[in-house]
Amino acid sequence: MKLRNVISADFCPLDPPKKVKILVRTDLNLLAQVLDWFEQFKHPTLPHAVWLQCQLALAEGFTNAVRHAHRGKPLEVPIEIEVSTRSQAIEIRIWDQGSGFDLEHSLSAVPAFMDVLAEGGRGLKIIEKTSDVFSYTRTADHRNCLLIIRNYPPQA
Q1: What is the CA radius of gyration of the chain?
Q2: Confidence of residue 1 (pLDDT cuts 50, 70, 90)
Q3: Residues 95-104: what's their mean pLDDT?
Q4: DSSP-assigned letters across all residues of 31-86
Q5: Dihedral of the CA atoms 9, 85, 100, 76 (nearest 10)?
Q6: Which domains are seen in the chain, by residue range?
Q7: pLDDT digits (tens, 9 = 90+) for 74-86
Q8: Does the pLDDT of residue 138 top 50, yes or no?
Q9: How does strand 144-151 pair with strand 133-138?
Q10: Could you say which of 16, 22, 107, 132 is the most buried, measured as most Cβ atoms within 10 Å of its Cβ?
Q11: Which residues contact 3 (CB under 8 A, 6 or more apart)?
């Protein structure tokens, strides 16, 4: 599958486990293509509900990188996404080139009850609720890495 406006894709043919990386332009219009790319992680050993939660977390993470971390940056500034699967876990990493933020502070600042019709402001809480591990750290190469890990039981 070829994604338009994706800068590059790197595929590792191990199935399972599997690790795939892509670089995507800073363009919210590419969300549908990112989600299409994520389709390859549907697998009988991954419960469908878990896959849907990971898809939602990926959408929220990518959207936040475009809207917040890369606000005001040129479209050509890439967002790197890596998804890897292993026995009973799926890991999503999203690297941005923004200035970063304090994840714990931002999560604590989100109100307990939000307007369900609000256009934004729920992304971090959604990711937190759909993941087992959720972090945002500055890397040695001056990028930020959003890490989302979702564990799941083995399928019979």
Answers
A1: 15
A2: very low
A3: 79
A4: HHHHHHHHGGG--TTS-HHHHHHHHHHHHHHHHHIIIIITTTS-TTS-EEEEEEEE
A5: 10
A6: 6-151 (3.30.565.10)
A7: 999 999 999 999 8
A8: yes
A9: antiparallel
A10: 22
A11: 9, 22, 24, 30, 33, 34, 36, 37
